[in-house]
TrEMBL record:
GO CC terms of this entry: Golgi membrane
Sorted UniProt keywords: Membrane, Transmembrane, Transmembrane helix
Gene Ontology terms: biological process: xylan biosynthetic process
Pfam families per UniProt: IRX15_IRX15L_GXM
The keyword Membrane is assigned to this record: yes
Listed name of the protein: Protein IRX15-LIKE
Organism field: Prunus yedoensis var. nudiflora
Matching PANTHER family: OS11G0490100 PROTEIN (PTHR31444)
Keyword flag Membrane: yes
Membrane topology: Single-pass membrane protein
Location in the cell: Golgi apparatus membrane
Superkingdom of source: Eukaryota
Residue stretches spanning the membrane: 36-54
Length: 279
């Protein structure tokens, strides 16, 4: 009986084999909610970090990519030539230069008046000649100088500009918008002086046909006696709108009556006219 019982017991005994897969399944089924939440939060933070990284990197790359096409455009030859000229020129040169306020006055007038183009007449080839060409890049700039040698050398030294430069024997019917008198030389008794240049500027401003109603005339070294007296006589003190250092800025209206020989509306504005009246 015992043997049978044992046998019966042995035959009724069920052996349960636990495989690793079954253990994993049971443990997973028991803790599935916690692991799902953990997986959800991990995925969420991963996506948030990725989006943050993309958004912060886009502003840094866009400006570089947008500037790439424009960085390959070369400077116009006249601008490049002017920059090189003033970069290598010495500020301690004995040649007289215009001051920064004087150049700013001329530059602001050209910028304001000459849009999009301007006719700019300049008496005298000076240290600032290339700057004037660059400022009036889209317009017409003409230089007049008493030295044929300087005119020739200027044209040969700056072929990119194709400048218009002539000696004093020059006639024109162009309605000039801006005229600058910075030559001929007038700082010594042997120099030709600027009397004829100031007179010519006054005539061109009043007698022009077409174009703007007024002409801006700049006279450099207005503090010198010759420049001051002739400017008062032919450009008129009533037309003087500002003085910056030694630069005089006149705005002269064109004359409707071309048979008139008067330069100034108010004769008393000219010191020389007062002297004539006293005589």
């Amino acid at each position: 009986m015992k043997t049978n019982t044992t046998t019966t017991t042995n035959t009724n005994t069920k052996l349960i084999l636990l495989h690793p897969s079954s253990i994993h399944k049971s443990s997973t089924n028991g803790g599935s909610p916690h692991r799902l939440w953990l997986l959800f939060f991990f995925t969420f933070f991963t996506l948030a970090f990725t989006l943050t990284l993309i958004n912060t990197s886009i502003p840094q790359t866009l400006p570089n990519s947008s500037l790439t096409p424009t960085s390959t455009i070369p400077l116009p030859p006249p601008i490049l030539d002017a920059l090189l000229h003033y970069a290598i020129s010495s500020n301690t040169s004995s040649t007289p230069h215009m001051s920064a306020p004087e150049l700013t006055t001329i530059s602001s007038t050209l910028t304001r008046l000459c849009a999009p183009t301007c006719n700019f007449l300049i008496f005298g080839l000076t240290h600032e000649s290339l700057l004037y060409l660059a400022l009036n890049l889209n317009g017409r700039t003409v230089f007049l100088d008493e030295s044929e040698f300087l005119v020739s050398r200027f044209e040969q030294s700056h072929p990119h500009h194709t400048p218009e430069a002539y000696d004093v024997s020059y006639t024109t019917q162009v309605p000039w918008d801006v005229i600058l008198v910075d030559g001929p030389r007038g700082y010594s008794p042997a120099a030709p002086g600027r009397m004829s240049a100031i007179f010519t500027a006054g005539v061109l401003a009043r007698s022009k046909r077409g174009g703007r109603a007024t002409t801006h005339v700049f006279v450099h070294d207005l503090n010198r006696e010759v420049e001051r007296v002739f400017s008062d006589e032919f450009l008129c003190r009533e037309n003087l709108v500002e003085t910056v250092d030694s630069l005089g800025h006149f705005v002269v209206e064109k004359m409707e009556d071309h048979n008139s020989f008067k330069f100034c509306r108010n004769p008393t504005s000219s010191p020389s006219s007062k002297e004539d009246e006293d005589d």
